[in-house]
Amino acid sequence: MFGIGTSELLIILVVVVIIFGVGKLPEVGTGLGKAIRNFKKASETEGDAAAKDANKPQN
Predict the structure, then answer these.
(1) Helices (DSSP H) in the chain: which residue ranges?
(2) Nearest partner of 28 among 12, 4, 40, judged by Cα
(3) Helix-then-strand count for the chain, H and E
(4) Distance CA 33, CA 27 (A)
(5) Which of 10, 23, 30, 37 is the most exposed place for a label (fewest CB within 10 A)?
(6) CA distances, 24 to each of 9, 28, 39, 42 (Å)
(7) Tens digit of each residue's pLDDT (9 = 90 or more) over 11-54
(8) What 3-state class would DSSP assign to 23?
Protein backbone atom coordinates (compact mmCIF):
# COMPACT_ATOMS: atom_id res chain seq x y z
CA MET A 1 0.00 0.00 0.00
CA PHE A 2 1.96 2.98 -1.30
CA GLY A 3 5.14 1.51 0.21
CA ILE A 4 4.03 2.52 3.72
CA GLY A 5 4.88 0.02 6.42
CA THR A 6 3.41 -0.59 9.85
CA SER A 7 5.84 1.71 11.65
CA GLU A 8 5.03 4.60 9.30
CA LEU A 9 1.30 4.09 9.80
CA LEU A 10 1.76 4.13 13.57
CA ILE A 11 3.75 7.37 13.39
CA ILE A 12 1.03 8.96 11.24
CA LEU A 13 -1.66 7.80 13.68
CA VAL A 14 0.23 9.24 16.65
CA VAL A 15 0.67 12.58 14.88
CA VAL A 16 -3.05 12.68 13.99
CA VAL A 17 -4.02 11.91 17.60
CA ILE A 18 -1.68 14.64 18.88
CA ILE A 19 -3.06 17.21 16.43
CA PHE A 20 -6.79 16.43 16.63
CA GLY A 21 -7.14 14.62 19.94
CA VAL A 22 -8.95 11.36 20.60
CA GLY A 23 -12.40 12.97 20.77
CA LYS A 24 -12.20 14.42 17.26
CA LEU A 25 -11.06 11.23 15.50
CA PRO A 26 -14.60 10.05 14.60
CA GLU A 27 -15.38 13.45 13.10
CA VAL A 28 -12.12 13.43 11.14
CA GLY A 29 -12.86 9.92 9.86
CA THR A 30 -16.38 10.89 8.83
CA GLY A 31 -15.13 13.97 7.02
CA LEU A 32 -12.44 11.98 5.24
CA GLY A 33 -14.97 9.36 4.16
CA LYS A 34 -17.32 12.01 2.78
CA ALA A 35 -14.44 13.68 0.94
CA ILE A 36 -13.40 10.41 -0.69
CA ARG A 37 -17.01 9.62 -1.64
CA ASN A 38 -17.46 13.07 -3.19
CA PHE A 39 -14.17 12.74 -5.06
CA LYS A 40 -15.22 9.40 -6.53
CA LYS A 41 -18.59 10.82 -7.52
CA ALA A 42 -17.01 13.87 -9.16
CA SER A 43 -14.38 11.85 -11.02
CA GLU A 44 -16.98 9.50 -12.46
CA THR A 45 -17.35 10.10 -16.19
CA GLU A 46 -20.60 10.01 -18.13
CA GLY A 47 -19.62 6.66 -19.63
CA ASP A 48 -19.22 5.18 -16.15
CA ALA A 49 -22.64 6.49 -15.15
CA ALA A 50 -24.24 5.07 -18.31
CA ALA A 51 -22.64 1.67 -17.67
CA LYS A 52 -23.98 1.64 -14.11
CA ASP A 53 -27.47 2.53 -15.34
CA ALA A 54 -27.34 -0.24 -17.94
CA ASN A 55 -26.46 -2.82 -15.25
CA LYS A 56 -29.37 -1.88 -12.96
CA PRO A 57 -32.36 -4.23 -13.15
CA GLN A 58 -35.50 -2.63 -14.57
CA ASN A 59 -38.70 -2.85 -12.51
Answers:
(1) 6-20, 25-43, 46-55
(2) 12
(3) 3, 0
(4) 10
(5) 23
(6) 19, 6, 22, 27
(7) 988 998 899 888 888 898 899 899 999 998 888 876 666 666 66
(8) coil
